[in-house]
Write a structure and sequence with these properties.
With 390 residues, this protein is an all-alpha fold. It has two domains: 205 residues, Cytochrome Bc1 Complex, Chain D, domain 2, CATH 1.10.760.10; 171 residues, Cytochrome Bc1 Complex, Chain D, domain 2, CATH 1.10.760.10. It is built from 17 helices and four strands. The protein has a two-stranded antiparallel ribbon with strand order 1-2. Helix 12 packs across helix 16. The radius of gyration is 21 Å and the shape is globular. The chain starts with a helix and ends in a 13-residue tail after the last helix.
């Protein structure tokens, strides 16, 4: 995210803070009480996510956020919604190498999955400053470089048609106890609430590991699990915990875990450089050591979220394993040619390893066992405007 988008985000955030009314602050205790009543539909072994006190979870907010998430009128063309890049059938990714905005502008990043996003303490691929789903929602709606929803400069028109829509009038009034509930602050809170509701903990692996169903996964997947958690492959160092990511937070953790890694994907000049539009968190920190460092994504539903890496430059799980097997990617020719394994900024966990073809099959079987079919078919997460299946 460039400086212009960050400044835009900051300006909106400050305006939101200044516009909060005293009555809303006084109503916080009531909302907190409602938060305790929200049903996360989590298995017993799963801790609850951390939710900001300023936006406690309620069923009404989640319902409103679901409509807004699938609402194409929040885009400049009237044909593009949050769900355009985050499709439920693909675990809320889009299957493209990089995202495509409402004006057909290609982005530089692959669309991240939203499953269990409530457990992520830092959002986006490479911005450690974006830690709130409420603030993050402003970027796709109003960001200009690149354009996603393309609504910058049209804030008042957007709020006006929401206020004029009888259905939204009612849903906003039910979700927020404000004198004028239809506003930008509440819109982002509702979308964030729906995103937090997208929990995925019912894969075959979950049933095997946490619910005692010994036959829920295959023998190959069980062998793959051992490989995954071995010091030989070292996968578990970065893909750890209940969400298979070392950037995780939940109610049982004493502190927030946040990490970014360089995996040796590029080494353009033999000095560790990445493509100029994808330099990782160095764009924010300006520190050389942060070149090519990106967030570790969750591996849940990974079989559905190809292509992989921050720029979608690895097409399959087999190719992704080959990348780590080699300790970094070698690009032999072209603009981005270089030996990634020799990058001075590469993570110490990406060392390369020996593995047989059958062991690769086992590792893929394990990764496929992380697919939660209930998650991608749950009607509570689907487009509310589509007809219900009988």
């Amino acid at each position: 995210m460039g400086d212009r988008i960050f400044n835009l985000l900051l300006a909106f955030f400050l305006s939101v803070c200044l516009s909060m009314s005293l009555s809303k602050a006084m109503a916080l205790d009531g909302h907190l009480a409602a938060q305790t009543e929200y049903n996360w539909n989590l298995p017993e072994w799963t801790p609850k996510p951390v939710v900001p006190d300023s936006n406690p979870m309620t069923a009404k907010k989640v319902a409103l956020g679901r409509h807004l998430f699938y609402e194409p009128r929040l885009s400049i063309t009237g044909k593009y919604s949050c769900a355009s890049c985050h499709q439920q059938s693909l675990a809320f990714t889009d299957g493209k190498q990089v995202a495509l905005g409402s004006t057909n502008e290609s982005h530089t990043r692959n669309s991240m999955g939203l499953g269990n996003v409530a457990y992520s303490p830092v959002l986006t691929w490479a911005n450690p400053l974006i830690t709130s789903l409420e603030n993050q929602a402003l970027i796709p709606i109003f960001g200009e470089h690149p354009i996603e929803m393309g609504m910058v400069g049209k804030e008042q028109q957007m709020i006006q048609w929401l206020q004029d829509d009888l259905n939204y009038q009612q849903m906003f009034a039910q979700a927020f106890d404000d004198r004028q509930p239809v506003n930008l602050d509440n819109l982002t809170k509702a979308i964030a609430s729906f995103q937090r509701s997208l929990v995925s903990f019912n894969s075959p692996y979950d049933r095997y590991r946490y619910q005692g169903e010994t036959n829920a996964i295959s023998a190959a997947a069980k062998r793959g699990e051992k490989l995954f958690n071995s010091e030989r492959t070292e996968c578990f160092h970065c893909h750890t915990g209940i969400n298979f990511s070392d950037s995780t937070q939940h109610e049982n953790l004493a502190f927030t875990q946040t990490a970014f890694h360089n995996t040796g994907l590029y080494n353009i000049d033999a000095k560790g450089s990445y493509p100029p539009e994808n330099i990782g968190i160095k764009e924010i920190t300006q520190a050389e050591k942060d070149m090519g460092r990106f967030k570790t994504p969750s591996l849940r539903n990974i079989a559905l979220t190809a292509p992989y890496m921050h720029d979608g430059s690895i097409a399959t799980l087999r190719e992704a394993i080959a990348h780590y097997q080699a300790g970094g990617r070698t690009i032999s020719e072209g603009e981005w040619a270089g030996i990634g394994s020799a990058s001075p900024y590469k993570s110490g966990f990406v060392k390369g390893f020996e593995i047989t073809s059958s062991e690769i099959d086992d590792l893929i079987a394990f990764l496929q066992s992380l697919t939660d079919r209930e998650f991608i078919t749950n009607p509570a997460y689907s487009d509310p405007n589509l007809p219900k299946l009988k």
